[in-house]
Specification:
Largest sheet: 2 strands, antiparallel
Strand content: 15-25%
Number of helices: 2
Distance between the termini: 43 Å
Order of helices and strands: EEHH
Shape: extended
Length: 58
């Protein structure tokens, strides 16, 4: 009965989901790293550049 809490910072909504079976054996860093690897495109634009004026895209 593990759950994931997802927080959308754009519209400040919150929802809970059942933890998918493929993540049941993971915890901590392994869990978060696998979720990010599965859900974030490798060529995605890093949002840090939109919010930090002192960073430069390289």
């Amino acid at each position: 009965m593990s759950k994931i809490l997802r927080v959308n910072m754009t519209d400040l909504s919150v929802k809970t989901e059942e933890l998918p079976e493929k993540y049941k054996t993971f915890g901590g860093r392994a869990l978060t790293s696998n979720i990010v690897a599965d859900e974030v495109p490798a060529d995605g634009y890093p949002a840090i550049f939109e919010h930090c004026p002192n960073t430069q895209r390289g």
